[in-house]
Write a structure and sequence with these properties.
The protein has about 280 residues and is of the alpha/beta class. It contains eight helices and six strands. It is globular.
Length: about 280
Amino acid sequence: MTSDSSPASGRTIVIAARHGERQDYAMLMKGENWIKGSDCPWDPPLSSLGWKQGDALGECVKKNLKDLNLPPVTQVFSSPFHRCRETAVAANAALEFAPDVKVEYGLAESLNESWYRSWSLPTSNGTWGYKERDAESEKVLPVNFNTLHRAALQPAAFVIAPRGFVQGIDLRHRSRTKIHKVYCWGSFESGHDQRRRMRSVINTVARPGSTSMVVSHGGPVTHLFEELTGKDWWIHGEASYASFSIYERTPEGNWETLVMNESEHVPNAVSRKSQI
């Protein structure tokens, strides 16, 4: 029997969070293009505000778990992208959870055309679904394969491999979830495949009697709600920076939403369709 003063045992809890503010978007708001000078234009780190948002994420998750009488976080997983690893590490420190963050490839960004357009065209600036236009007519220009960033033509497994050292990441961990299909420019990931791989991650990391946290991206986190609950994504709403939801697996194997798209804790929280 569970006492009122101690966290409930035997409950399977998963927290799904989005990363904090991206450096490329922070610069774009100032009229600067981070993408243009980067060796890895698909993988921006956090801005200084993003690090603060990651810390606030951890503090708010800790408070919510305590208020709901739920077990504390016992494992943290992250997308391989730089901004997610940094967010997970910042949140992990605030959670006062000792083991390092583990990277799971299945938590990666949506590998769809809008994502590729955001970084692989000659004048891409990070904007989701970016389109090049004629300077005079404003007509959308066709994509020239010869001018695409060469990484866009390689298998996505190359692109999503973690780059840049982040203190607090478990380098010994080998991801148990993979991107099995060969995605690249012209062979994009469908929404269905994205949702299914996110569910696969949850099925892999969720452990009975414990609380697990995953840090991913706006689209994957938003549409995970659809996959787990069977409800439309608009009920959840767009995931803003460092927002999170808490899910509990029922005895029947379904998922119940305990906290949905919480973002009031986030410094300068905003929600834009282009912020992914």
